[in-house]
Structures are given as structure tokens and as C-alpha cells.
Write a structure and sequence with these properties.
Oligomer: single chain
Structural class: alpha+beta
Radius of gyration: 62 Å
Number of helices: 3
Distance between the termini: 170 Å
Order of helices and strands: HHHEEEEEEEE
Amino acid sequence: MDNRRLKILPEVLPAPTKAPTSNDVRGRTLAHMQRLLATTAAMLPLTDCTKSDTQGSQTVTIPSASSSATSESSAHGTLLVPTATATPTAKATATAPDMGYAVIDPMPAPARCLGLANATRTSAVFVRDPGGLLLEFSATLPSGGAWAGTTFTPNGASAWSGTIVTQRITGLSAVARVKVTAGNTSAGVSFSITCAAGPGSIAITSTFTDPPTESTKVTLQKHEY
């Protein structure tokens, strides 16, 4: 039996040999990239990573909403909504223009004593008075039938195109003297009355030639209101 001691021989590695040079495109590209990485790694220790901030601290001011809205509104028109702090002010409303339409002769209310004017006797003549030539109107109301109780209103006479000088009104009879305005060819008088239906009036309108005299013929028209 062999009693020799076994020993571990030292490991023998093959001698390093230079990698074969590749002449293909991929090989050349990889070699170039390796050189770039080696150069970059050599330059990293030279970089000062502890360089302090030379700009120092800066203060940033955020503009308020009102100033931003003002600047933006000035730069880009009026697309921004005005701030809610604005106080509304009342504006005067323009008055509608006058179109020139107006009621010149409004329709009178229906006569309460309808037909009374035709049933009333009327007359008018020019009379001489110390104050000049006057136009005297006379009216007498009907006294029976449907007009029973109808009367004139005391001192209820009024005139147009002239001035009343005197008036005498008693019950069913009324007389008024009118000073006609110079140059007019028409004048009238109105007497207030009361009938069964309520208050009303009788209007008497006269027409004549100018200048009038005591003999001038007067034409009358009468209406109840």
C-alpha cells in the first residue's frame, strides 16, 4: 500500500493575452465608448461638488389678485371678471324720445243727460252794454216728462273765446253775457246742470261774422255732456 501524502499543487493560470482587435463596426463603437467612459471617470474627482450657491437667497413677491387682474386686463383687454370689491353705481336711465304723438281731442265721457240739449230752447244775440258789445246766451230747460227735476247749477256758467261779464241762473232758466275776444268769429258758453241721471252740462257754440254788430246773425250748435 502506497502511504505517500497528497499535496495540492498551486493553480497555474495562463498568461494574460491581449484581446484580439475587432475590425467590425460594433467592435470599434464599443471600444470608443469605453475610452469615453474612462475619460469621464478620470475627470470626476476634479469637479468641485461642494461649490456654494453664488446667487444667494432671493425673495419672490407674489402679486395680489387685484394688481394681477389690473395688469392682465390692461395687457389683454377686458376678458377678466372685475373684482367683487367694486361698488356698483347707479346709472341714469335715458328717457325715451318723444315721438310726437299725443291725444289732441280726447273722447268725452258719455253724456248722462242724453238728449237734453235738443229738448232745451237756446238763443244768442249781440247786445249793446256800457262795457261794449256783448254776446248774450239764453237757455231754458224742459220741465216735464223724463226731464222732470232737471235744473241749472247756480253760477255754473263758463265761456271760451271770450269772458263772462254777467250771468243769471235760476232753476230752469240761464242767461250769460260774454265779451267776445277781438278777431274771433266763434265763441261759446257752458251751463252746468243736474238731471235724474246725475250732473252734466250743456254747451252752446255760436258762429258769426267779424266784426259783429247788434244786427249780426248768430248760428248756434248745442251739445250735452
